[in-house]
Amino acid sequence: MQADEIKAKIREVVTQVTEIPGEEIGDTTSFTQELDLDSLALLEIGVDIDYAFQLNLPDERFKDIDCLDDAVNLVMTELAARQGQAQVA
User: Fold this and answer.
1) Within the chain, where are the H helices?
2) Phi, psi angles (nearest 5°) of residue 26
3) What's the domain count of the chain?
4) How far, CA to CA in Å, does 43 sit from each of 29, 53, 81?
5) What does the pLDDT read at residue 87?
6) CATH code, domain carrying 79
7) Domain boundaries, position 83
8) Distance from C-alpha of 62 to C-alpha of 47, rounded to nearest angstrom
9) What is the mean pLDDT of the chain?
């Protein structure tokens, strides 16, 4: 899965949770400072991202995500790690 596909899916998740139009969610737009999202919305975004990409990560892994790029990096890192594990097995 390419970074652009991951970014589009995460932007869709954020839009579904917050009802903020996707075009208003920039790659580095702060979820907390600029979009004024509370911890519950951030948790819901994390859970939905986890479900969308079948990561099965603990909620704590999503606590440091504050923008779209942070979320994309986390997903790409986890997917790459899993692909590496699959190649070893």
Assistant:
1) 3-18, 39-53, 68-88
2) -75, 170
3) 1
4) 17, 16, 23
5) 59
6) 1.10.1200.10
7) 3-88
8) 8
9) 92
Q: Would you state the structure tokens that stand for residue 34, as one six-digit string?
A: 């600029």
Structure tokens at 25: 């969610």
Are 67 and 27 in contact by the 8 Å Cβ rule? The answer is: yes
Residue whose token pair is 């939905």: 48
Residue 16: which residues within 8 A CB-CB, separation 6 or more?
Answer: 48
What distance in Å separates the CA atoms of residue 76 and residue 31, rounded to the nearest whole number? 19
Here the tokens at position 18 are 């917050």
**Residue range 37-61: mean pLDDT, rounded:** 94
Greater model confidence, 31 or 60: 31
Nearby residues of 17 by Cβ (< 8 Å), 6 or more positions away? 41, 44, 45, 48
